[in-house]
Amino acid sequence: MPSLETTPIPGLVVVRLDRRGDDRGFFKENWQREKMLAVGLPDFGPVQNNVSFNSDRGVTRGIHTEPWDKFISLATGRIFGAWVDMRQGETFGATFTLEMDTSAAVFVPRGVGNSYQVLEDATAYTYLVNDHWRPGVTYPALALGDPTVAIDWPIPLGEAIISEKDQNAPALDPSTAMAPKRTLIVGALGQLGRALFAAHPDADRVDLFAGEGVAQLDLGDTAAVDAWPWHEYAVVLNAAAYTAVDAAETTEGRVASWAANATGPATLARLAREHRFTLVHYSSDYVFDGTAPLDPGHTEDEPLSPLGVYAQSKAAGDLAVGLAPRHYLIRTSWVIGDGKNFVLTMKALAEKGVSPSVVDDQVGRLAFTDELVRATRHLFDTDAPFGTYNVSNGGAPMSWREIAQAVFERSGRSADDVSGTSTTAYAEGVLAQGNPFAPRPLNSALSLEKIRATGFEPEDALVALDRYLS
Length: 470
Description:
This protein is of the alpha/beta class. The chain has 2 domains: 3-176, Jelly Rolls, CATH 2.60.120.10; 182-469, Rossmann fold (3-Layer(aba) Sandwich). It has helices spanning 33-38, 164-167, 191-199, 222-227, 251-275, 309-321, 342-352, 369-381, 400-410, 423-432, 449-453, 461-469, and strands spanning 3-6, 13-16, 19-22, 25-28, 48-54, 60-64, 70-76, 79-85, 95-100, 104-108, 112-118, 123-129, 182-186, 204-207, 215-216, 233-238, 278-284, 327-332, 335-336, 357-359, 363-364, 367-368, 387-390, 398-399, 419-421. Strands 15-14-13-16-17-18-23 form a 7-stranded parallel beta sheet, sandwiched between helices. Strands 1-2-10-7-12-5 form a 6-stranded antiparallel beta sheet, with no helix packed on it.
């Protein structure tokens, strides 16, 4: 079994391989995914294997900093390896050196400069990488003899065999430090997308339509998707959705709903597999039919049972996102944020003196966008296992009428000014006017036990409501 040794450079590790030899030669498992993951290496997804054969002792190559991960080892010979952290951050300029033979390997994370000096003739240096070299792109380099990092080469550089390009590499310069991969917000113009941007102001943003600081990207446009630089992102937050639940029951709405809620997430899941970014996708209580017991509510592993077109498209998106190796699928309910929503509608009615009739047999919990943002950040900060998590605000489940009454009370009106009606009666009124109406789950309450088990405690919905209305 291989073993792992850490170094002063974060993420750079030495792997001691299990090499078996006799008078005929040796055998080793140079890369065995299951065993490497078991000792702590990341599942970095190599896509290419390269061999650099060095005929003469003294050949010295580097210091090269490419934007991908490497797994380095030797097929024959011996080297002196040297690595320099070229990433932005506190460890910029940190170094590590190692004399290695065929019994050792080194995992080099993206942004760490890599170099080596050959100590034996006929040394074959091999490395796996998780991205393809792209012509015409220049990557950062560092002078082999830079006095700042002061690498103690065993063969003086004046006696070494060095390419002209490496001889002319620049000195260490913090301004050229490699930035981390970025975050992309999809669906950035919606209320959740805006809340995510407030928490990630350096993120790139796209939406179906362009806006200030927001680029246009249609996930249904194959050419546009293929041209987008997905390899530059570590995280993609997908807040895009078609949420016109009733309009989804129309011919045009059905197409739009499936494009945004099913095909779009499936495209992102495919891209997440190809480019190894973490995909965060926000889903809905509508993927369930509402027949689960109110306590504990719908759990993450409950079989999907969508009722209407919108619900079915969201469920299809959930299934697609589940195929992404690194994903957080966040199911939520009754989202309230910066934009047109139920709470603001009830507040406006209260201020106008209107006494509405509100559905009282649909029960669930509000989910404020800042709570969804907080939960998303928590999953990353705690390195929570990938998978599906229910997220909403906490407290006892409430009906839409009870929520409206709470808004009225906070607006100086009496709770009695809000009367109740059933979903069936409300639907009859909508249909009588010739408008479409989608079936609703009567129980939208989601079990929050799984997210609580990660150390996240949802804020009570009424406490969040007070803050929202203040």
